[in-house]
Design goal:
The protein has 226 residues and is α+β, with helices and mostly antiparallel strands. The protein contains four helices and eleven strands; from the N terminus they run H-H-H-E-E-E-E-E-E-E-H-E-E-E-E. Strands 2, 3, 4, 7, 10 and 11 form a six-stranded mixed beta sheet that branches. A five-stranded mixed beta sheet has the order 1-9-8-5-6. It starts with 5 loop residues before the first helix and ends with a strand. The mean pLDDT is 83.
């Protein structure tokens, strides 16, 4: 049996209760406040992030740009070489009428742009042809005429080291060879009919500066003469 008296037990209980109340009543230390400069820094970093994100968004290539042809550009008379095409545009003429070497005669309500070119394959000639032969005036593309049939090199099979030499004929509206768009025209040649992500030979030409002839007679296409 404990020798502790009731009075002692009551005193101890009172002391314990007082300690508990003192502990409960103690003030919890306040959390340190974030310094103002840190808010300013966070705001500045957010602004920088948004600016960089905006620049990336507006300068990243579009899908159309990713798939665009790769231009190989040079003037008339210069030999231009792409991945699997080598081409030289040797002459460009504008005429009201054209007569091909096979006797075909082309009359039009517009005009003819006649291009003389030499084209060959570079790496391989397996399944390779002059699938793209077009004239760009402004935002409009004109394909080389197929009407003269074998009298042009449109669609001609290309070989490595054995160039195809001959004309290409483009029928365009009469007003297409005058004005600002005509001054920035382009002859575009590629070794397939879908030149996306592949080489395209591009020859700028000022159509507005060319004399307009009444009629042009073209030479027969030749294979194998450089």
């Amino acid at each position: 049996m404990s020798g502790e008296t009731p009075a002692a037990r009551e005193g101890a209980g009172a002391t314990s209760g007082a300690e508990t109340l003192a502990a409960e009543g103690a003030t919890t230390p306040a959390k340190p406040r974030t310094p103002p400069w840190r808010h300013v820094l966070n705001g500045a970093l957010l602004v920088v992030f948004l600016v960089v994100a905006g620049i990336v968004l507006h300068t990243a290539p579009t899908e159309e740009q990713w798939q665009a042809a790769i231009p190989v550009t040079g003037p008339v008379g210069q030999t231009l070489t792409g991945r699997n095409i080598q081409a030289t545009v040797t002459d460009v003429r504008v005429a009201d009428a054209v007569t091909a070497s096979n006797g075909w005669s082309g009359e039009t309500s517009g005009v003819w742009v006649v291009v003389d070119a030499r084209v060959e394959a570079v790496l391989t000639d397996y399944g390779v042809s002059l699938g793209t032969a077009q004239l760009k005036i402004g935002d409009t593309l004109y394909g080389a005429s197929e009407r003269p049939d074998q009298a042009t090199i449109e669609g001609a099979v290309l070989s490595v080291g054995l160039p195809q030499t001959g004309p290409l004929m483009f029928e365009v509206p009469e007003d297409a060879v005058a004005g600002d768009d005509a001054r920035g025209a382009e002859i575009q040649l590629a070794a397939n009919d879908d030149p996306r992500t592949d080489s395209m030979v591009v020859v700028p030409i000022d159509l507005a500066a060319l004399p307009r002839e009444a009629s042009v007679t073209t030479d027969k296409p030749v294979w194998g003469i450089g």
